[in-house]
Amino acid sequence: MPGTPRVPSAGQGWLALSPLLVFLAIYLVSSIIARDFYKIPVAAAFLIASAYALIISKGRTIEERISVFSDGAGNKNVLLMLWIFILAGAFAETAKMIGAIDATVALTMAILPGKMLFAGLFIASCLISMAIGTSVGTIVALVPVAAGIAAESGTGTGFITAIVAGGAFFGDNLSFISDTTIAATRTQGCSMSDKFKVNIRITAPAALIVATIYLIIGQEAVISAPEGPIEWVKIIPYLTVIGLAMSGVNVIAVLAIGITVNAAIGFCTGALDWTGWLGGIGAGIAGMGDLIIVTMLSGGMLEMIRHNGGIDFLVRSLTRRIGGKRGAEFSIAGLVSLANVCTANNTIAILTTGRIARDITEKFGLDPRKTASILDTFSCMVQGVLPYGAQMLMASGLAGISSLEIIRHLYYPLALGITAAFAILFRYPRKYS
User: 261-275, 333-347, 367-381: lowest mean pLDDT where?
Assistant: First the structure.
C-alpha cells in the first residue's frame, strides 16, 4: 500500500533520512561556497532533494512514488499553511498600499523610547503570541511592522525581524491555546496548567536573558521618533488583526477580515480604488509564490521520508540505549528535535513522538508534566531555527530577506535550548524531576 510506512533496517533507515541531508548539503554548503545565502534558492534545493527522494524509494512504481509525494504536498496541514501564506501576502500588501504599515511603525516608535525599542518589541511579541497561541499569527501581524521599523531606524531588517520571531515562539511554547501545548499535554495525560507550571520555570529565565540582551543593545542604538502626526485611522487594520487573534478568532478569518478592513479604509481615504485593491491582493499573493512552492516540495519530501521509515528509524535509534532519568529525558528531547527536523512542524513532531515519550516516562518513572514540557520546549526551539520551517519562511517572505539572515540573529531559541538542557542536566524544577 502506498500510504503504509516501512519498518527499515539500519541501512534503509539512513537511506530514508538521506533526502534531508541532501537538501541541507545543497542549500547550506552551496551558500557557504558562494558566500551569499541569497544566491541559492530554497525551492531549487528542495526540488533536487525531492527528486532524489523519489529515486531512492525502491519497490514501487513511479506512479506510487508520486502518489506518496503528492499526499505529503497536499496534506491538510500543508494546505492550511498555503491559505495562510496567500491571505497574509494579500493583507500585508494592501495594508502597505493604504499606509497602515507606516502609520503603525510611527506609533510604535513614538510609544517606545529609542533605547527600549528592541526589548519592547520582544516583550510585545511574547505577550501577543501568548494571547493568540500561534507563532505564525504573531509573525503575520508584527513582521511587516518590524520591517518598517528597520527601514525607518536604519537597523538591520534581519535583526528586527528576529526579535519578533523569537518572541513569537515564547507564546507558541506556553500558551494554553497553542497546538503544541494541546498536543504535548494530551499525549502525556497531564493538565495544561500543570505543564505550564513546569514550562514557565524553564522558559522565563531564557526570556529574561534575551530581553536584557536587547535592552543592552538598545542603549547603543540611535533611534529617533518620526516627525509629524500619527494617522490613527490607518492603524485600525493592525489593531483589528491583533484584537481578533487575541479573542480566539481563526487566523484565516482574521486575515480575511483584515483584507476587507484595508479595502474599506483605502476606499474612504482615497488611497485605493477597486482595481488598485484587487491589484494589491494579486501582488501580495504573487509575492508568496516561492513560499508556496517550497512548502509543497518540503511537505512531499518529508512525507517520503516518513513513508520510507525514516521517522520510525529515528525513534528506534534514540530509545535503544537509555540509562537513568537524565538519559531518558535527553532521549525524549533528542527524539522530538530530530522528528521536528524531519517534519518541519513542531505539532506533528510532538504527535509523532508523543506515544514513545509516554512509554519512556512510565518506564523510567519520569514526571509526565516535565515530559510534556520537554516535548513542547525542544520542538519549539528546533522549529525556530529551521530555515524551511513555516515560521521562518513566512517571516522571510514578509520581510523580503533570506530566512538564514533572520536565524543568525535569533537569540531566544538558542537561550531556550540552553535553559531546557540545563533543566534536564540539573534536574530542574526539582519538584517535577
Answer: 333-347
Compute the chain's Rg from CA coordinates.
Answer: 22
For the entire predicted model, the pTM comes to 0.79
Of 231, 2, 187, 191, nearest to 98 (Cα)? 231
Q: What per-residue string of b and e applies to 370-386 under the rule 16 or more CB within 10 Å gives b? A: bbbbbbbbbbbbbbbbb
Q: Tens digit of pLDDT for each residue in 385-403? A: 998 888 998 999 899 898 8
Which residue from 400, 410, 398, 347 is spatially nearest to 376, judged by alpha carbons?
347
Q: What is the DSSP string of 401-430?
A: S-HHHHHTT--HHHHHHHHHHHHHHTT-SG
Asked if residue 167 lies in contact with residue 420, where contact means CB atoms within 8 angstroms, the answer is: no
Task: Using the Cα atoms of residue 8, residue 23, residue 46 and residue 348 in order, give the sign of their dihedral.
Answer: positive
C-alpha cell read off for 171: 507564546
Report which of 213, 214, 209, 207 is spatially closest to residue 167, judged by C-alpha positions. 207
CA distance 382 to 41: 22
First-to-last alpha carbon distance for the chain, in angstroms, is 43
Task: Give backbone dihedrals phi and psi of 139, rounded to 5 degrees, phi first.
Answer: -65, -45
Task: With beta carbons less than 8 A apart as the criterion, state whether 426 and 210 touch.
Answer: no
Give the position of cell 504535548. Answer: 184
SS (HEC) of 3-64: CCCCCCCHHHHHHHHHHHHHHHHHHHHHHHHHCCCCCCCHHHHHHHHHHHHHHHCCCCCHHH
Report, as an integer, the average pLDDT of 218-244: 80
Q: What is the pLDDT of residue 276?
A: 95
pLDDT for position 4: 54
Lowest mean pLDDT among 121-125, 273-277, 390-394, 427-431: 427-431
Rounded Cα distance between 73 and 204, Å, is 37
Q: List the grid coordinates of 201.
A: 520555570
Return the top range by mean pLDDT from 77-86, 280-289, 303-312.
280-289
